[in-house]
Amino acid sequence: MSGKKRLKLLSPGRIYHVLSAQQFSKSELYGLFELADRIRKIAKTKDGLDFLQSILSHKRAVLYFAQPSTRTYLSFNNACQILGIKTSDMRSAGYSSEVKGESIEDTLETMHSYTDMIIMRHVEENLAEKAALMFNNSDKPIPIVNAGSGPHEHPTQALLDVYTLCRAFKGKVKNKTLAIIGDLKRGRAVRSLVYMLSNFDGIKFVFLSPEELKIPDDIRAYLLNEKISYEESDNLDKYIKKADVFYYTRIQDEYDKQHESKTIDYTTFYLKSALLRQMKPNAVILHPLPRRNEIPPEIDKDQRAWYWKQEVNGLWMRTALIAHIFKEDGYILNYK
Structurally, what CATH architecture does the domain formed by 3-153+313-330 represent? Predict the structure, then answer.
């Protein structure tokens, strides 16, 4: 598609980085989904899990999570363990020598010395790209995985989101209307999801948010350039019967400068139990989590609530991605 940035080609033929949702083609996505399905099936037996744990037992990874994380951190850590990778972690920049004045480049260079892969989440939105360029030019190129880049992108979240939609709709993601609800201005998961779903035909987006949290101009420009249909509204009721997917997000108030989110009324966008009766019977409700009040716990029992399945899918999708990075796809798919 036009406008695609194949960021993995920063180092053609040498190393595979995961930096942006835009780098994935439809065929590559389906290949990753097939690999994730195969891995989760193999892992059901001890023999299968022993096989998986032998594949990358000679590799090490650093998980550099300078922003708080529950699901992304745990799923990546467990994905590494499934493939036999030994991990080290740094859960905050406050535990590194950055607090002593060390540059971020020197911190990354130190991590690079000890590992075969860096999985990183950081408030600085272009740091993963910077690290990829640094190590492409080193004597030991290693893959960089963007596990969350400020308010900009979260490509592996988009991978597990689209994987979940494929499972929910039996592989038929095309011709779906997605209502994306919440903080669309600062939601990196939203941005990456829009990029990745542009691979599929007939996708229509409905962006539902308060005026202060509408999608940024660059996303509008991208959708117009790609000729992807979208609408913007602050009226959830108008679309409750029309959408195939309801993708909720929380208010991203960690990016507030002066607690401005506290002045925004978000309650009209909450998914109340009464609204479930108006939804399509095969609709899918997703949320990248953590949630607050936008989806009450009683909705968890509804068959259309897929967000906990979505969370589990993150483990298998990230395991498949790491195996793909190290070019072990064929070895796993041919396992008997």
Answer: 3-Layer(aba) Sandwich (3.40)
Percentage of the chain exceeding pLDDT 90: 79
Q: What end-to-end distance do the CA atoms of the chain give, in Å?
A: 37
Evaluate whether 3-153+313-330 and 155-311 have a shared fold: yes
pLDDT tens digit sequence for 111-168: 999 999 999 999 888 899 999 999 998 889 999 999 998 888 999 999 999 999 999 9
d(CA 22, CA 149): 14
The pair of structure tokens assigned to 73 is 């951190």
- For every residue of 138-161, DSSP letters joined together read SSS---EEEEEETTTB-HHHHHHH
| Reported pTM | 0.92
In CATH terms, the superfamily for domain 155-311 is Aspartate/ornithine carbamoyltransferase (3.40.50.1370)
Tens of pLDDT, residue by residue over 218-227, are 999 999 999 9
The rounded radius of gyration (Å) of the Cα atoms in the chain is 20
pLDDT beyond 80 at 253:
no
Find the DSSP H helices in 20-174. Answer: 26-42, 46-55, 71-82, 104-113, 127-136, 155-168
Q: Which residues contact 230 (CB under 8 A, 6 or more apart)?
A: 204, 205, 206, 207, 220, 223
Q: What is the DSSP string of 169-198?
A: TTT--SS-EEEEES--SS-HHHHHHHHHHT
Q: Of the candidates 3, 82, 8, 13, which has an alpha carbon nearest to the alpha carbon of residue 41?
A: 82
**What is the C-alpha separation between 93 and 77, in angstroms, rounded?**
18
Sign of CA dihedral 220, 228, 194, 108: negative
Three-class DSSP category at 283: coil
